[in-house]
Amino acid sequence: MAKGHRSQIKRERNENKDTRPSAKVSYARVSVQKACFVLDAIRGKDVETALGILAYNPRYASTVIEKVLKSAIANAENNNHMDVSKLYIQECYANQAPTMKRIRPRAQGRAYRILKRLSHITVVLNER
To answer: What is the pLDDT of residue 1?
Structure first.
């Protein structure tokens, strides 16, 4: 086949594909800074410990991250046939999503802008 042929490019791209189980939530209604407080607490921990931390964390972001983590665990168990007791959180990060702009009326006819920040939260697992 010719170099740069579409099928060859696809084949090479699929060979380099990341096979680690992961889950992602897009447009989560929590800011990146607030999500990172929770993500820093669970990074590098095994999944049982991380679920315990998330269950007793009072922040709103912990409920969102708990759902993402449970989804990643299910992906590892069903798609990759991994043992749940050996899993740990290898990577977890939050990226900024588009911000919703809202207007708040203020005194003397002025309008103040309110920024409702969103984030994309990703959790990547691996086996020890």
So the answer is: 52
Q: Yes or no: say if 127 and 87 are a contact pair by the CB < 8 Å rule.
A: yes
Which residue range is the domain that position 118 belongs to?
19-127
**Interatomic CA distance for residues 53 and 98, integer angstroms:** 29
**Which burial class, exposed, middle or buried, applies to 26 when counting CB atoms under 10 A from its CB (0-12, 13-18, 19+)?**
exposed
SS3 state at 61:
helix
Q: What is the CATH number of the domain that holds 120?
A: 3.90.470.10
The model's pTM is 0.83
Separation of alpha carbons 120 and 113, rounded Å: 23
